[in-house]
Amino acid sequence: MFCVNCGKKISKGRLCDTCLSKYHELFKFKKPVLRIKVCDCGRFFFKGWKEKSELVKTLVKLNMKLSWNAKIRKKEIISKEHGNKIFITVHAEGKVDGVNIKEKKSFQVIKINNKCDICSKISGNYYEAVIQLRDVSLSTLMDIISKDEKKFITKIKHVKNGFDIFFMKKPLAKSKSKQLKLLGLNIKASYKLVGKKKGKELYRDFYSVRRKSDGDKSRKNKNTKRE
Ligand SMILES: [Zn+2]
Ligand SMILES: [Zn+2]
Question: 129 C-alpha vs ligand 1 centroid, how far in Å?
Fold first, then answer.
């Protein structure tokens, strides 16, 4: 038997593997170029702001269209960044109609600079909660805040007897004040009405953090340090 397209000798079917793979494709990219909003911090916008680490994977998933009769067995993604562009290439291996096919295709991403929700809140000094450290060192709090969580601190203010730490989100401030309590500190929570949004009252949370009074000296000395 011979390939009906190129005339090469084959053992079965109508087309040789080379010609088959020309007519069969595993996948294609819906768009050769994607425009995506990306913040200086690396987060990007796709159905909401997403973490940088997911960028290439998310865009491949979004843009890749598998042929209806294709099965992909192996997929490798290679991406290169250059200026405001990302070049993404996908190497795939699989089968179309039972024929083994190797395929390599690329698309391009153009990054459009845009401030993400977190960064615009930071630059606007937005905050929902404040931890007020009084006669307690700043490191007592900072030591229990992870690098990722630090992104949600919008401001640190040095005040008389201590520091005010402004948090973008209430739950983080709440959980940190609980941790401070476990360290043997005294926490006093209060709430301040700051306005209304869509008919709902908006409150800011304040956590005043102090050392425990003399009754509890052993715990205090063990768990807190003075600067
Ligand atoms: Zn052929
Ligand atoms: Zn950002």
Answer: 69
